[in-house]
């Protein structure tokens, strides 16, 4: 499915009926051949924007998976870089494919084993795995691992317009996940419709950040002129 090297429908079904951690452990060997990996054009756009704000010292890729976001850190950081993820399978694949310049640490993003250790934290495509009630604690964890004045950056796509194909696709996926979690244990949390920019900005401010938004112009604009994707850059106060 997705690509010849990607997972089959049966493999995806097994992963979807597992926990989030176990599901990603199973998916890890084929993850980079699925649409779930952050596209290179998004990584390149983020790199371009961060390069204008840097350079940075030490960098962390939060929920790094197989490590696609580490390439962003390599481009904009001159200090040691690291990735953290709770899936041992994803980290193992990342170690096999990545270079020795990055530390890869297994840990839960809600209980990070660092303090004041980084100047830049990035994250790509992971926030749907956290319930809205968990986000304030997650953002507080990120704040705790940043040095004074450090930055937390992540891209956020513009919401799909009501009635569009993207809107109905996302709604259908969200509904299917909620039905699955009502009927099956362990839960597999993946609710991307809950990640609303206005709520996230307020939660970041409460966690001690100043929030700025940057249009990722390389990803284009919608017919009304608004950017298709923005980079949230939260600076630790």
UniProtKB/TrEMBL annotation:
Residues 60-150 form the Methyltransferase domain. GO terms for molecular function: methyltransferase activity. GO terms for biological process: methylation. Keywords: Methyltransferase, Transferase. It comes from the Bacteria. Gene3D superfamilies: Vaccinia Virus protein VP39. InterPro entries: Methyltransf_25, SAM-dependent_MTases_sf. This is Class I SAM-dependent methyltransferase. It comes from Streptomyces crystallinus.
């Amino acid at each position: 499915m997705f690509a010849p090297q990607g997972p089959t429908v049966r493999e995806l079904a097994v992963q979807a009926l597992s926990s989030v951690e176990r599901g990603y452990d199973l998916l890890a060997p084929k993850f980079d051949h699925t649409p779930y990996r952050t596209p290179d054009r998004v990584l390149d756009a983020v790199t371009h924007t961060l390069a204008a704000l840097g350079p940075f010292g030490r960098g962390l890729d939060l929920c790094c998976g197989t490590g696609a976001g580490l390439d962003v850190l390599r481009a904009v950081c001159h200090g040691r870089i690291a990735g953290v993820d709770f899936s041992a399978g994803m980290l193992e694949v990342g170690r096999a494919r990545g270079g020795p310049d990055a530390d890869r640490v297994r840990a839960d993003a809600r209980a990070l084993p660092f303090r004041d250790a980084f100047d830049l934290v990035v994250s790509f495509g992971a926030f749907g795995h956290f319930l809205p009630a968990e986000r304030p604690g997650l953002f507080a964890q990120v704040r705790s691992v940043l040095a004074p004045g450090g930055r937390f950056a992540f891209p956020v796509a513009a919401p799909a317009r009501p009635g569009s194909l993207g809107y109905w696709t996302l709604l259908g996926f969200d509904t299917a996940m909620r039905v699955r979690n009502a009927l099956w244990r362990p839960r597999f949390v993946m609710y991307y419709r809950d990640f609303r920019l206005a709520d996230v900005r307020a939660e970041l401010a409460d966690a001690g950040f100043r929030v700025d938004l940057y249009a990722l112009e390389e990803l284009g604009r919608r017919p009304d002129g608004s950017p298709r994707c923005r980079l949230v850059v939260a600076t630790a106060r």
